[in-house]
């Protein structure tokens, strides 16, 4: 049972409460929540709940499963054309979607750019949405860049995006530590890159590791212990193309031997288009290595955990029901949007193709799917007519 809840973290106890609130008052909207997502919402700490609460939850899951089945059947009956996408519909009326949404959250790689190249039509699409008064935010699991570095990347591609409109999982890691009052006299060990360093520094935390440990080696031989800092109170693991055995040893020792040391994962993405068309191992592979050596479940702060969404909803006072998450991955972007109660739009310009969406193994369906973000430009004509 515990294995089903691996991506979850203690800070999500609020989401756990939300499940019970939904149980008392299930609405047609919440009944669209896939069972898998419900499982994701429950925190690791649910096992510490009373047996009565656990029993309630299991009853709720059974009830929700029936609602889901009814919803899916009704949707299929009402719209035979969506059979190809099962629970997802092709976006045929972008104007209507835009009308219903106040805030758009965009994943970046595979949505705004791909392999570092801007997708044609994206600047015009963002301009159109801004002219319509929509708030725009960019939410990425890329932890190699800080918000400032991402802003520079946007600018280098001719997109004028403000720093506060960008959320990276490196920012989420620092934000999470801040949110739990992580003591500033403690240190953070980084298996990751400069983005995490910059965000931790900006949040006032001391850190070590990162690219600086990229060339270090462990000496193998009798009695060759690795010295590690006993003041490390958290290890943050993200994508790290300087990963080496020294870092794995250091992170393992801190987590296993420093009492109370936290294990934080910026994200668990298995693969990504790191520089081009090929899919290469992503942050989840580094997380998996430390997870194996420590037998600990990390606290995940990137998508699909809703830390970044909760942060911006609170900071900018935005209603999640008026948000739409646009992304190219089902297991991060679409689950993230669904976990937060947003509308979701899958674009087929990145990792997920139509074959994957329609595959019998797939259990995650966005509200809509379309080829690429600039398809929203069609709304201009509809609205002008
Ligand atoms: Mg992406």
Automatic annotation (TrEMBL):
<dbReference type="Pfam" id="PF13344">
    <property type="entry name" value="Hydrolase_6"/>
</dbReference>
<dbReference type="InterPro" id="IPR036412">
    <property type="entry name" value="HAD-like_sf"/>
</dbReference>
<dbReference type="InterPro" id="IPR006349">
    <property type="entry name" value="PGP_euk"/>
</dbReference>
<keyword id="KW-0378">Hydrolase</keyword>
<comment type="similarity">
    <text>Belongs to the HAD-like hydrolase superfamily. CbbY/CbbZ/Gph/YieH family.</text>
</comment>
<dbReference type="InterPro" id="IPR006357">
    <property type="entry name" value="HAD-SF_hydro_IIA"/>
</dbReference>
<dbReference type="Pfam" id="PF13242">
    <property type="entry name" value="Hydrolase_like"/>
</dbReference>
<protein>
    <recommendedName>
        <fullName>phosphoglycolate phosphatase</fullName>
        <ecNumber>3.1.3.18</ecNumber>
    </recommendedName>
</protein>
<dbReference type="GO" id="GO:0008967">
    <property type="term" value="F:phosphoglycolate phosphatase activity"/>
</dbReference>
<dbReference type="InterPro" id="IPR023214">
    <property type="entry name" value="HAD_sf"/>
</dbReference>
